[in-house]
Design a protein that fits this description.
- The structure is a homodimer of 619-residue chains.
- With 619 residues, the first copy, chain A, is an alpha+beta fold.
- Among the domains of chain A are: 137 residues, Butyryl-Coa Dehydrogenase, subunit A, domain 1 (Orthogonal Bundle), CATH 1.10.540; 129 residues, Butyryl-CoA Dehydrogenase, subunit A, domain 2, CATH 2.40.110; 142 residues.
- Helix content of chain A is 55%, strand content 12%.
- In chain A, a hairpin with a 5-residue loop joins strand 2 and strand 3.
- In chain A, helix 3 runs parallel beside helix 6 and helix 9 runs antiparallel to helix 13.
- The two termini of chain A are 33 Å apart.
- Strand 1 of chain A pairs antiparallel with strand 1 of chain B.
């Protein structure tokens, strides 16, 4: 089911001032990636980690340039095409992707982009996680719907890599790393989304180590398409006789085509079929499938009834990837808005003409337009830094020789993942909406890209666990885990940074702001500890505001780190105006984003009494 | 150009748990309208006003019941139809509206709904503005795209009623009041939206009192359709030789068919044609037209070069109507979300099962789901009250015998219009987004109505002047008008209310909250006076945050008025649980919405320095 353009009487040519160069603006932000990886995170200091041993900054910079070229030139031009054409479901249960997608996917594989961060044992390049993330951001900005195909494949790769047998790994991983085969996650059923304990899809043992899988799965992204030779479905199901609830769920590999012994594609696993596509608000270029399993052949991954744990290997990776989508769509939408604001002549500056020879000034002269653009810039650059910083901890967690460093990094990954997913997608949606607003009426038309960015990014607040679920995961699990060790470490790190930079006059506003918001977050954390245990509804009631307060604190830290790095460059005589702009953007964050922290703190401390007072029928 | 459903493999029947009764939930909120008109605004006390003389509350209640029946049963079922089918432009330049629209429009006219508030001299019913607004809200909730056709006709009616000659009034108004003819506003040209001074459409005198109009207008809502016998275009154009800029703009009537002397429809005004429809994100059921004028016959309304003043008669009415759309779409989306949250079983309450015999609890048990619903309810009910309260001032401004009352009411209309338009549509969009969030993945699919509400409401933040323009109008014109008389009156009224209710224990939290936010608004106003004059960029930089602070103050006043009315009912022994729910919702507003006021105040006081520091090329 697909929205398609069936009639086009209002030819863009009828709108004489519509400029083609405003319609495709996305330029991968390599300059900001370089700043983060070189000046802020200084990845060259991590040469002792295996992933970084062969990944000097200089090499990484070359990779970024190549990624920018591929995503900007191959993927970005197909973004609008995917939105307008959508995917088409055919009566033989096959799915045709939008024009150009298949060829672009081939280029993605040929360029080795599918295996950037994957295990060299299976043909991957073994590059740092943070480098893979940089590519993923560009790919998602250029074409979110397209980049979900390899994105989900990588999630499935990770689950098999983590939990699969040697035979399973040897069979599937090389093909998934090369991109010849893609993968999916099959969790949701019509009656069960968040609450996986309700799932009904069943698995009956065949006696030969294989299972017959039967049931219906919905909202399966990339569940069927025409770009790869095979699709490796990872399916949650309940083995006959398994315990009820989440303790009775197992994970199965259900390939579209059964692999032959030599690793090539064999006969069709006819029991798995895509029976329809979902009609949806955005990401039209990605096939959101209804998957029907009727005695499909499947193989258990890992132990019986341990499916949920394995699925969370995929899920945690996916959640970080969704937070990234929030920033990625925001970046693309912001670029379109900034280009429009510099081009569109309308009205005069409040302080006198800035383009006196023209019929009007470009709208970027207006403070309120700048407010939207600068807020976007502050959220995007802060959010990107937070993602990269966390991803670097992912690298530390996997490869650092010191166990204490690994443990702290692991703690951070757990703690930050729901914050990145929830906060950055909420803000990504805001940025995309502001980008439409900067466009005025043009933004609401489908001639300009703003509508697609807004429609596409909206799913990021929902899938892989709604943002409300992220907030609950944060306050209900991640804060309390290991006696609160993760959040304590984070507070300690912030205190240490504030202490170390106390006398730095150039950094003073950033340090003061960070110290203040850290105190607010600590206050909110104490409130949760005191009130959330005695009444869990208080924790639920506070969760979203707490998550936002956490996100603000994270970004305040990132802005302090970035300001410090920018100051150092300026002090060393670097005259690139990039650094001055960075400091202005950071100041905007402090002045005009951070005041929300106080509101979130006040709200979360009101507790659950009012929320729970109304009976359901009063809504 | 239209998005249409061309393929439907994913039959909703494939999703077994999709319940039809969740897909059409909108029930006109007559109970809340009754509360506002009877208990809060007490319209029966205004019997001395002409409009109210024949409009006792009892009669008004009957009208509301009839309006609820018509909008709920006739318009609401066509809302999804309009979205999916859209309008179709035909090669003969005609436009076909979605299936069912034409018949529904006939029922609208037959029921007399097009002339509720119109002048009895031209066949209208002369009912109070506030009663017309109640109908408009229901109509817009039920079907925003449909209700724009009569909505724009009413705006054109008002401009002709205000500025037309007797002949023009006699020719056009009776047909527009009956709904036989509709109307449009033609302002925007491709290169000129906000900045009307740039417009190029020209008018050449024919020497016989008529003009030849030539030019292109875009984004003309309801510019062409098949539901009425004639369409009365009001067109801004520049008479040859007129001064440049906004001082050289005149307003013309350009009917699709030239009226005959007997008032019937004559020959086609062939110089006006719809040459295409805009493809857009939402309101697909409304025809957004590219209108081409080539020597079309037109008649000047009012004086030469006084077009802008006349257009603002329409515009101010339209802006209030757009603020109303924010609340109306929010109401419909909220109802859909509340119905979903009571039906969807997923997970268990954090404090133990609430539906122990079922497989899971309905998601409305979760505090974070309730947070979204209660925030929506607080914003909708507060926003509706603010609209109705302002509309009543519209009635006072037109009909009150005391000149001082009329003047104050007129001041309020001017001051509140940008706040209602900007604040209520910003919040309407938030509510529609939260309604999608409550739906989870279902909300992103087009099976459920959440996507349409979100896509439709988005235009309300843009058209009739973007919300940024509203904020500038507020700080740049409305605050300063007549030496700040309007805002002073408002502060005085708030102080008086606070003083009069100081000892009312039951009302205490509402009074304290109102006094606090009023002080914050006054602080922000002072800051603007001191800093906005010396540097207009400071006013521009503060404008949106100031508008939100104003909106919050307005809603705090409304919640205090509503709480007082609810307390009085409860004290009088009325046991309707409606009043208790009203007080809980008001408490939510104070605890969890009002804290934003401090953040807005802090932000607006930061001034424009950071905003203006970056050169354009740094964006």
């Amino acid at each position: 089911m697909v929205w398609a353009l069936v009639d086009a009487p209002a030819d863009p040519a009828l709108v004489p001032d519509l400029k083609q160069d405003l319609l495709m603006t996305y330029q991968p932000p390599v300059r900001d990636h370089v700043f983060l990886l070189r000046d802020v995170l200084d990845i060259d200091q991590h040469g002792q980690l295996p992933a970084f041993a062969d990944a000097s900054f200089d090499l990484v910079e070359q990779i970024l340039e190549g990624a920018a070229k591929f995503t900007g030139e191959v993927l970005a031009p197909l973004n609008g095409v995917g939105d307008k054409h959508g995917c088409v479901w055919n009566p033989d249960n096959s799915v045709t992707t939008p024009p150009g997608f298949k060829d672009a996917y081939k280029q993605l594989c040929d360029g080795g982009w599918t295996g950037l961060g994957s295990d060299p044992a299976y043909g991957g390049q073994g590059l740092p996680f943070v480098v893979g993330l940089a590519f993923s951001e560009m790919s998602s900005s250029a074409n979110m719907a397209f980049s979900m195909y390899p994105g989900l494949a990588h999630g499935a790769y990770s689950a098999i890599h983590y939990g699969g047998s040697d035979v399973q790994k040897d069979t599937y991983l090389p093909k998934m790393v090369s991109g010849e085969w893609t993968g999916t996650m099959n969790l949701t059923e019509p009656h069960c989304g968040t609450d996986l304990g309700l799932l009904r899809t069943k698995a009956v043992p065949n006696g030969d180590g294989t299972y017959k899988i039967s049931g219906q799965k919905i909202w399966i992204s990339a569940g069927e398409h025409d770009m790869a030779d095979n699709i490796v479905h990872l399916v949650l199901a309940r083995i006959e006789g398994a315990p009820a609830g989440v303790k009775g769920i197992s994970l199965f590999i259900v390939p579209k085509f059964l692999p032959k012994a030599d690793g090539s594609v064999g006969e069709r696993n006819t029991g798995v079929q895509c029976v329809g596509l979902e009609e949806k608000m955005g990401i039209h270029g990605n096939a959101t499938c209804v998957m029907q399993y009727d005695d499909a052949q499947g193989w258990l991954i890992g132990e019986e009834n341990s499916g949920l744990k394995l699925m969370f290997v995929m899920m945690n990776e996916a959640r970080l990837g969704v937070g990234l989508q929030g920033v990625a769509q925001a970046e693309a939408a912001y670029q379109a808005a900034a280009a429009f604001a510099k081009d569109r002549l309308q009205g005069r500056s409040l302080t006198g003409p800035k383009n006196p020879d023209g019929p009007a000034d470009p709208i970027i002269v207006h403070p309120d337009v700048r407010r939207m653009l600068l807020e976007s810039k502050a959220l995007i650059e802060g959010g990107r830094a937070f993602l990269f910083w966390t991803a670097l901890h992912g690298d530390l967690a996997h490869g650092h020789p010191d166990e204490a460093v690994r443990a702290k990094a692991e703690d951070y990954m757990g703690l930050m993942t729901p914050v990145l997913k929830g906060y950055l997608t909420d803000k990504g949606f805001k940025v995309c909406s502001d980008a439409m607003q900067v466009h005025g009426g043009s933004g609401f038309t489908e001639h300009f890209p703003a509508s697609q960015y807004l429609r596409d990014v909206r799913i990021a607040l929902i899938y892989e666990g709604t943002n409300g679920i992220q907030a609950l995961d944060l306050v209900g699990r991640k804060l309390a885990a290991k006696g609160g060790r993760a959040v304590m470490s984070f507070f300690q790190e912030l205190d240490q940074f504030v202490g170390e930079n106390d006398g730095d006059e150039a950094l003073k506003p950033f340090i003061e702001a960070l110290a203040a918001v850290k105190a607010q977050l600590q206050d909110g954390t104490m409130w949760l500890m005191q009130n959330g245990l005695q009444n869990p509804d208080n924790a639920g009631a506070a969760s979203t505001d707490y998550m936002h307060l956490f996100g603000l604190t994270g970004l305040a830290y990132m802005w302090a780190l970035m300001a410090k790095a920018a100051n150092a460059k300026i002090a060393a005589g670097d005259s690139d105006p990039f650094y001055g702009a960075k400091l202005v953007t950071g100041r905007y964050f402090i002045e005009r984003v951070l005041p929300d922290a106080g509101a979130h703190l006040a709200k979360l401390k009101t507790g659950s009494a009012t929320l729970m007072a109304l009976p359901a029928e009063a809504f």
